[in-house]
Amino acid sequence: TLGGVINIITRDKGTNGGEINVLSGSNGRYDYLFNYAGSAGQLNFNIIANKTGSDAFLRNNDYDAKQYGLR
User: Of 20, 14, 18, whose CA–CA distance to 51 is shortest?
Assistant: First the structure.
């Protein structure tokens, strides 16, 4: 058999707002997150930026990642 689902979610426009998260942990772990959603007339948007990483506790185990998005 073949099946599937289409999920359509509608939302009220709501209010403009966002969040900023800062995380720090052991072994040099860090995570920074910026998220903002808003609207201007008929345009609704969501802006996100994320940076995460860690120092090398184990050899060759460090990382640094960046993510950006606009929707």
Answer: 20
